[in-house]
Amino acid sequence: MAGFEVITEVAFSFVGITVKGKLQGLMKLENAGRSARIASQKGKPLTYVGYLETAPWNIKLLMQALGKSPEFGAIGTRLIEAAVRKSLDEGFKGRVALHSLSGSERFYLDVCGMTPVGRDAAKQNLLWCEFTPEQAKKFLSEDAE
Amino acid sequence: MKMNQSSKWLMEKAEQEDGCLVSVGGLVDSLEQSEDASTNVIPFKHAFVRFVQLARRDRKLTLDQFAERADVDLRELLRIETDEHYTPAIRTVHQIAGFLKVPEKRLMVLAGLLKVKDAQFQRAALKFAASSEPVEKLSQEEHAALEEYVKFLCDR
User: Fold this and answer.
1) Domain range for B106
2) C-alpha dihedral over B38, B43, B46, B47, to 10 degrees?
3) Cβ-defined contact of A75 to B4 (cutoff 8 Å)
4) Hey, is the C-beta of B20 within 8 angstroms of any chain A C-beta?
């Protein structure tokens, strides 16, 4: 059985995806003290993804190097969906932000459709990516291209 | 939390995500910034990688055999030996320390899981990392494996 497990403590929460009791991906969300940087939303509260990672056996590049196939796909998609839904639950209208590692930018920009707001000098020049409410809605929509 | 139940949506997203990395770095960066700047993790990590490699080879064990005997995940062992930026799980280091019969805490330091301010320890790690770089001629097996892989790469 696949499932989501959310452990909430005041201003942050962890979301994990489990299949048959095995953790497939994990994410840390911060729900206080973060605000939007994108011009149209500047200063508005959002959900910040502090950590997101899939289990090694779900990373295609890694598994291919071992001559195997990944066990599960769409782990990142499901976790980002959970982040958006958490943002909606908190009243942040789907606003979500994160610092993408350089190798992951394609996923956040091209697959999720987040906005690349800028490099963050305080975070090793990692790219600050952000969902506006409209982008978050589009991400969740079945009709999105 | 109610998630999207549409298989069409999920399949499309899965297809788009296929092959992508998804790592997020905010928390990791925060943790790194909180580390004591006086510690020198990279030489430690390099020493850890070389230590595991040499200890395994000294026992004439393949990665498979080492992983089985130490009771660690083969994939993680592979990452340990090939990626010095990788920080292994605490349990893995515990298992390796037990298998190799070395002090667990010191191995944790080498693996980047614990920090110490010990100049002598740092110097020894750096010296080991530097002096353990292989310069010897490849064994017949290594040479054959290399040749075979080169052939595979050329044939692709």
Assistant:
1) 38-132
2) -100
3) no
4) yes
A–B interface: beta-carbon pairs under 8 A: 110
- Token look-up 């508005």 returns A44
- For residue B24, being part of any structural domain is answered with no
| Band of pLDDT at residue A124, cut at 50, 70 and 90 | confident
Q: What is the ipTM of this complex?
A: 0.85
User: What distance in Å separates residue B29's CA from the closest CA in chain A?
Assistant: 6
Element (H, E) at A48: strand A47-54
Out of B13, B23, B27, the one facing A104 most closely (by C-beta) is B23
How many domains in chain B? Answer: 1
- Supply the mean pLDDT for chain A: 89
Q: Does residue B86 sit within a domain?
A: yes
Q: Which candidate from B4, B22, B76 shows the least CB-CB separation from A107? A: B22
Read off the pTM.
0.58
Among B72, B116, B74, residue whose Cα is nearest residue B94: B72
Q: Is B137 within a domain?
A: no
Q: In this structure, what token pair is assigned to residue B113?
A: 């899981």
Single-letter amino acid, residue A33:
G
d(CA A139, CA A99): 18
Q: Which residue of A has its CA nearest to B9?
A: A142
* B24 vs A52, A75, A89: nearest CB: A52
A53 with B76: Cβ contact below 8 A? no
B26-61, pLDDT tens digit by residue?
Answer: 776 666 655 544 445 566 788 888 889 888 988 889
Q: Distance between CA A122 and CA B118 in Å, rounded? A: 29
| CATH code, domain carrying B112 | 1.10.260.40
Over range A68-94, report the average pLDDT.
94
Architecture of the A2-144 domain: 3-Layer(aba) Sandwich (3.40)
Contact criterion met (CB < 8 Å) for B23 and A101: yes
